[in-house]
Amino acid sequence: MGHHHHKNSSEKNLRLVFFLNLGFTIIEFIGGIYVNSIAIISDAVHDLGDSLSLGTSWYLDHKSQQKSDSKFSFGYRRFSLLGALLNSLILIAGSVYVIYEAVGRLMAPEHSDAEGMMVFAIMGVIVNGFAAWKLSSGKTLNEKVISWHLMEDVLGWASILVVAIILQFKDIHYLDPALSLVITIYILWNVFKRLKETLFIFLQGTPSDINLDELKQQIKEIPGVASTHHVHIWSQEGEHHVFTAHVKLENINSVEEYLNLKSEVLNSLKTYNFEHFTIQFELDSETCSLE
């Protein structure tokens, strides 16, 4: 019952923050155009990416409760990679547009409505601050990661607020597009980092939290293990990993010895907390057709 309640709470929090963020993103785009602030528009692009991430997280949080079936025997977790890839591509496209607009503003500066910027900056701090607080007590990784990301948004809005205050006293036209470029470059740096990680998982790279050579050596050091081959580790979506291997055994004289050694090898993998692992055991008299 406790697990079920936790799942419902996580899903409700993500749903609330998703609609809150999406609604504010729409207001940002309209407001950024209205007050003629490219910095607010660039943050709106950022928040659009956040909304996509939140929507994906909310959907997957619900979808992850669905068990594997005949269509997806490993379950539905890998769908999050598709969401991350689409999200990254949309953010890159939006950021390129913002950079184009910001450079144009630097070359031909325009006046921004400082009072309007201040109003939206205060709203941004409040909305993102509330959303971050709402998810800060969450237990799932989705909630924790998004909470930290929203806190970064609060800092971004705080910087827009500082610029708006400066513009109240001195109308420096290049401040708004300059801030926009800083925000957008920061967004792109994070997007490319996330995209690199996503593509690495898509290409079934070895998870960074596991040392493949150490794992193979650990298995080979078990008395009775002759060698290992076709050892593969990949991740479903960055958190839940899958392991397969062929393990050749030696000096096995009875079924009992075989079963004990098999159990020892399997138990050695428990420290890695693999969600799925499959091992094909072979005797030293056997020849593996794949080796």
Largest sheet, in brief, is: 3 strands, mixed
Order of helical and strand elements: HHHHHHHEEHE
Strand arrangement in the largest pleated sheet? 1-2-3
Based on CA atoms alone, the radius of gyration comes out at: 26 Å
Mean pLDDT: 80
Helical content, roughly?
A: 55-70%
- Please give the number of β-strands: 3
If helices are DSSP runs of H or I spanning 4 or more residues, what is the number of helices? 8
What does this structure look like?
- It is a single chain.
- This protein has 291 residues and is mainly alpha-helical.
- 66% of the residues lie in helices and 10% in strands.
- The longest helix has 33 residues, at 2-34.
Helices and strands in order:
Blueprint: H1 2-34, H2 38-63, H3 79-107, H4 114-136, H5 141-169, H6 175-202, H7 212-220, E1 225-235, E2 241-249, H8 255-268, E3 276-283
Parallel strand pairs: 2-3
Antiparallel strand pairs: 1-2
Helix pairs in contact: 1-2, 1-4, 2-3, 2-5, 2-6, 3-6, 4-5, 5-6
Write a concise synopsis of the structure shown.
By secondary structure, this protein is mainly α.
Which terms would index this structure?
291 residues; mainly alpha; 3-stranded mixed β-sheet; 8 helices; 3 strands; 10% strand; elongated
